[in-house]
Amino acid sequence: MALKIRLTRGGAKKRPFYRIVVAEATAPRDGRFIERLGSYNPMLAQDHPDRVKLFEDRLKHWLSVGAKPTDRVARFLGRAGLIEMPPLPEQTKANQPKAKAQERAKAAAQAAAQAAEGSA
After folding, report:
1. DSSP per-residue letters across 46-64
2. Percent above pLDDT 90 for the chain
3. Which end of the chain is more exposed for a tag (fewer CB within 10 A), N or C?
4. For 3-80, CATH number?
5. Which of 31, 33, 10, 38 is nearest to 22 (CA)?
């Protein structure tokens, strides 16, 4: 039986609220779970103390038994100091300009630098 520490969604439409639970890996996301280990409210500000609540002693127990946290929960646990902070995944390059646009920007920067040298 593989155990996961993961989020289950609650709350109303467009007002999410998540519980941090330990569940079997094959159980549905919002279905059966073994124990509730905390909560996460993304509607609160980043620095609000109630944004992420963790039951640290129970989390330590389940981690020692072999439960694996999901990526998001691992980040919460890393910030709380319960596990090593997981590495952030490398961002995709989809948000960057395409090759021709980058060349035009580089050429414009060089032209501006030459114009600055010429006027000085």
Report:
1. TT-TTSEEE-HHHHHHHHH
2. 74
3. C
4. 3.30.1320.10
5. 33
The two three-digit tokens of residue 23, written as one number = 């569940």
In the chain, where the domains are located: 3-80
Instruction: List pLDDT tens digits, range 85-107.
Output: 988 877 777 878 888 999 999 99
Hey, is 65 helix, strand or coil? helix
- The helix or strand, by DSSP H or E, that contains position 110, with its residue range, turns out to be helix 99-119
The C-alpha atoms of residue 23 and residue 32 are separated, in whole angstroms, by 7
Residue 20: its H or E element: strand 15-24
DSSP 98: -
